[in-house]
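Protocol step 4 of 6: record predicted structures for both targets in the notebook before any analysis. Target 1:
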Amino acid sequence: MNDKIFLQGLEFYAYHGALAAENEIGQIFTVDIEMKVDLKEAGQSDRVEDTVHYGEVYEDVKAIMEGEPVNLLEHLAERIAMRINSHYNRVMETKVRITKKNPPIPGYYKGVGIEIVREK
């Protein structure tokens, strides 16, 4: 089964990071979510109850990203994946990718970040 629901390019201004400057100044984080879900029933029924409401997933991600600051992106990603996998029965696997666009490190890059995949 290769069906997926995704939320791509969610942006949040938050204060996460291991460096003091990140906690004081904050920065933009980009979050991508991909959920493995069997979409056949929803495709046949045309009922939102037969799928995962991505508006609700967005609100869950927003609450975590804009919530209390943490040191590691890994921790944020785990919290997001755990929330999705435990709250949405139809989700079989969740991929979370978090990117810091402008971390306070020297160099030229489009971003730095992490990606995790968690099965239910």
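Target 2:
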Amino acid sequence: MMRLAELADERLSARDKGLPERAIGLTVAEFLATGPRLSEFWTPLVVLDDTALRHNAQLMGAWSAAHGLVLMPHGKTTMAPALWQRQLDAGSIGITLATMGQVRTARSFGLDSIMLANAAVDERSLGYLARELADPRFRFVCWADSVATVEAMEHGLRAAGTPRRVDVCVELGAAGGRTGARSVADARAVAQRIAASDVVRLAGVAGYEGSLGHDRSGASLDAIRGYLEAQLELHSAIAADYDDEGDVYVTAGGSAYFDLVAEVYRDAIAAEPDTLWTLRSGAYLVHDDGFYRGISPLDEAAAAVADAVGGAEAGGEASDRLHSAMVGIGRVVSHPEAGLALLDGGKRDFPFDEGLPIPRRTAADLDAPWEALDDATIRAMNDQHSYLALGSRDVALGAVVALGLSHPCTTFDKWHYLPVIEGAGSDLVVELVRTFF
């Protein structure tokens, strides 16, 4: 279990945007003990839903287990240790991170099972890693996609005097993709170099299929399947290079195509139950109302497309769907012309890289009844403003607007604390989620 108790003792300050005035100077625990209401908070806001978070964590944990997969969800999505703990409590065997700085943050909370979905080549961070490896409870695995990467790791770890070998997965990429060896043959050469080392240990095959598709079209699904099949080809080709001194991973799976991972890996999972067939999906916990709403196999929209193209088995298999656990709230601060209102939240507050926010509801204030806002749109955003193009319904100066958000990965980095309400229909704040970006 991570050491989270210290977060409850942090003092809230005027530097933490969105908090009520009366929270300033209190510790997190003291403030929550007063039963705060969302209506006390200042806008703009991003709010999380406790019921949806619990539902999503349990659903994804059960889905993965039913398919013979283990979860090491990507923690860089939220950089929130309290949310990582929810994922661990739901059965995840560890947390994935993207940089050694994030690893250091996670270790400061006592996290002892980490996958670095990246290479570690800097002598400073490798020196830190070597010191952390003195803890026998610490399970760590990272990636390498070239012989040069392996040699850089060896140099840094030897200089630091690593107490044990570091588990390394060979990363397979694809032409036009992100990192990763560009062919199975190139990746096999990297794997053989890792296996020959006395400083690092060959621990499996890794990669990221998400960069090869951005939708549920037949072409995207075929590209993803082809990549995952190449992963299995590589895993089979280097089988003789594995030792019996530790775990072996085969890992893929962002939050968009994990159904295809289960489909392609299925026979191999049955044949090799001791291999850690690992999903790194991170966005599922919060889900969203935009990009993942339309592409995740555990959302109604993507499931319908998957069924239509005859692909992913998850289309009709899951007993339930992921729910968006985040909502943005902005307040109308200007009504400069007919059909246009300006909200007080913009790019500094809400994500915009995978689609603009979607107006869903409006209310006179945070403690007033919400009403649907069906035909309004956000047409543009500035740093601290969103342009709300009104449809058939006017929105008064001072009213609040609830926004569906797209892409949790670029939501959390904008907030130090995010209030968590009990659930839909409640404005009782039960938690403040602290991020570490």
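Step 5 preliminary note on target 2. DSSP finds 13 helices and 18 strands in the chain. The longest strand covers residues 326-337.
Proceed to step 6 after PI sign-off.
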